[in-house]
Amino acid sequence: MSTTSSPSAKPMVRDRTALWLFLGYAVLLFFAFVYLYPFLVQVTTSFKTNTDAVANPLSLVPDPFSTGAYGELAEKDFPLWFRNSVIVTVLVTAGRVFLCSLAGYALARIKFRGRGAVFTAILAVMAVPGVILLIPKFLVLNYLGIYNTWPALVLPLLVDAAGVFIMKQFFETIPESVEEAARIDGASTFRIFWSVVLPMARPALILLTILSFQGSWNELPHFLVASQDPDLFTLTKGVGTLTSGQLGSGKQYPISMAAALLMTIPVAIVFFVFQKYLVRGGTAGAEKG
Amino acid sequence: MSRDRSIRRGQALAGWTFVSPTLVVLGLFLAVPVAMALWVSFTDWNGRGSPFASGIGFVGADNYRELVGEQGGLTRSDFMTSLRNNFFYVLLVVPLQTAFALFLALVLNQRLLKAVGFFRTAFYFPSVVSSVAISLVFLFLFSGTGVVNSMLDAIGIDGPTWFNDSRGLFHLLGDGLGLWSTADPPSALTGSGVLGLTWWQWISGPSVALSVIIMLVVWTTAGTFMLMFLAALQDLPVEVEEAARIDGAGAWGVFRNVTLPHLRPTMLLVTTLGLIGTWQVFDQVYVMTQGGPGKSTLTPAYLSYSYAFDNQKWGIAAAMAFVLFLIIFAMTSFQRFLFRDRDAIATKRAEKRTKKAHANAPAGGAS
């Protein structure tokens, strides 16, 4: 059939599109349930008594309603761990976004001798399992005299090889002509990077911010070996020991759900703030307009 | 000419300045520690004092021999068990999370779909949540009388006691298919083996307990990878797909010849990150199972940690870490090789197809 017969073909195409849309919605709603239900359970269980949580795990209505779990957390070191996690995460995220873009830009765009070797080294670093560093990281931190200090928590996390990799990949997609104009105007390399290229890298920067925040907030193994001072416990380390130690293998479900919920809130906020930058078509719209 | 040279020198200076903070941090907290670990893996250091002190015994390759050699005993069978567990874990997690992430991204990328933001948020959200928090939630969901078992109960299925169940899925599958009986495994498999485990133990598949961690990780990480696929899909101008459609390609044809080749770099990134991440699974094991039940969720990463920090066997723990390192290195190299090869083949195929499509287009029309 040639394209001239489109009047008869069109309704069929529309039907098929509608069917695909319907299937799409069905699939998405099913998975939305799979993804949201655990969090609903988490929130409601945190307001239950332990007896209720064990007897009626499916019920989304606490009976009786109880804030006992939160009270118990407030009495423990939970607020301290929370504060520590915020400090570490803010420092690490700021450092990582800046340093990874710097290095990623250099590897993508600046021509200098040894660039290939540096990139190979970073690729090799990406393949180094972080967990093999647990033992020697302790030794290095101890040797430098910063074991059990704030720098021990923050410094080793400041650069992430995968972040450098992501930024390099992104910078390579930016047309070089963009920089040429600025270079002819005599702008310094840092100036070109900072004022010309970096603003264009917004999507990658936002992705990296989310990944860095998530990474440092989630980090557990590093904090396990970087300090033993209870004053320097972060949420992951504190809650990890809370459930296995003080609470007896995490069987006090409302308390563990409340702890899990509270440590989720800051990342949830960051996530929702950045979320809107990820909307499709920011550039596509500009093209068409 | 001299201007050229000064520009080049300026570039070199800028380049090294830009990468130097990264190099210092990675060097100090990655390269130096790796070198130290390598040294420790050849000693019998017990965690006291400096590993470079004069009293520390250099034992050569003894630690490595204990991991893979005949005299290894319990250490070797622990290590092999952890490798087996992690192998089955990787075997399931990497393909599942990649396929699932791609699937979600493709569904979400449909143009007429509304409320995309809501669904994307829902799927990505677990990726930003602390692994410790998620582990706690799953401990509750999959507890003996927990949410999952209550749901299974409602449709008449008697769910397992997930975290106490060390039975291997492949053992159970073979039992279900009538290949063997788990109560009385075939002696051909239990009678002999290799590297400290019997063949029967090697083919167990992931245990029921480990499969909970597998579900958790696929559920959690799919969102991150979905975002990467979505970003790549959105780089693909709608116009290109439309052009392919007008040229007469069906939905499947567009997907195979336009969308998939476009996604290849993302696919490489996703599977590379997946492979590297899954061989290092630690947090979930630490919080949820500590390697149990019956060592069926033991992974090399956790085993290495516990040998060092709980048992003070630092040399063996470091050796484990290096064997793990070699495995990851080999797997990712192999996978990069596969991708490169396929890339060339795919390009050739795509060229052929384009030629064919052009030849057919005038005659064929929409189909």
Q: Biggest sheet of chain B, strands in spatial order?
A: 1-2
* Total domain modules of chain B: 2
Biggest interface goes to: A-B, 108 and 99 residues
Our estimate of the beta-strand percent of chain B is under 5%
Kindly, what is the distance between the CA atoms of the first and last residues of chain B, rounded to a whole number of angstroms? 61 Å
If you compute it from the alpha carbons, what radius of gyration of chain B comes out, rounded to the nearest whole angstrom? 26 Å
Q: Per CATH, what is the topology of the largest domain in chain B? A: MetI-like fold
Organism (chain B): Nocardioides baculatus
Subcellular location (chain B): Cell membrane
Keywords (chain B): Cell membrane, Membrane, Transmembrane, Transmembrane helix, Transport
Transmembrane segments (chain B): 12-42, 87-109, 121-142, 208-233, 266-282, 314-339
Describe the structure in your own words.
The complex is a heterodimer of chains A (289) and B (367). Chain A has 289 residues and is an all-alpha fold. Chain A has two domains: 6-68, no CATH class; 77-251, MetI-like fold (Orthogonal Bundle), CATH 1.10.3720. Chain A has 15 helices and no strands. Chain A has helices at residues 6-46, 50-55, 68-75, 78-109, 115-127, 134-143, 150-154, 161-171, 177-184, 189-200, 202-218, 221-226, 235-246, 253-275, 282-288. The model of chain A is unreliable at 1-6, 246-250 and 278-289 (pLDDT under 50). Chain B has 367 residues and is mainly α. Chain B has two domains: 1-39; 74-168 and 205-364, MetI-like fold (Orthogonal Bundle), CATH 1.10.3720.10. Helices cover 71% and strands 1% of the residues of chain B. Chain B has helices spanning 2-40, 62-68, 74-108, 116-128, 131-141, 147-154, 169-176, 187-190, 199-202, 208-235, 238-246, 251-278, 283-289, 300-309, 314-364; strands spanning 193-194, 197-198. A two-stranded antiparallel ribbon of chain B has the order 1-2. In chain B, strand 1 (193-194) and strand 2 form a beta hairpin. The longest helix of chain B has 51 residues, at 314-364. The model of chain B is unreliable at 361-367 (pLDDT under 50). The chains are: A mainly alpha (289), B mainly alpha (367). Chains A and B meet through helix 1, helix 4, helix 5, helix 6 and helix 8 of A and helix 1, helix 3, helix 4, helix 5 and helix 6 of B.
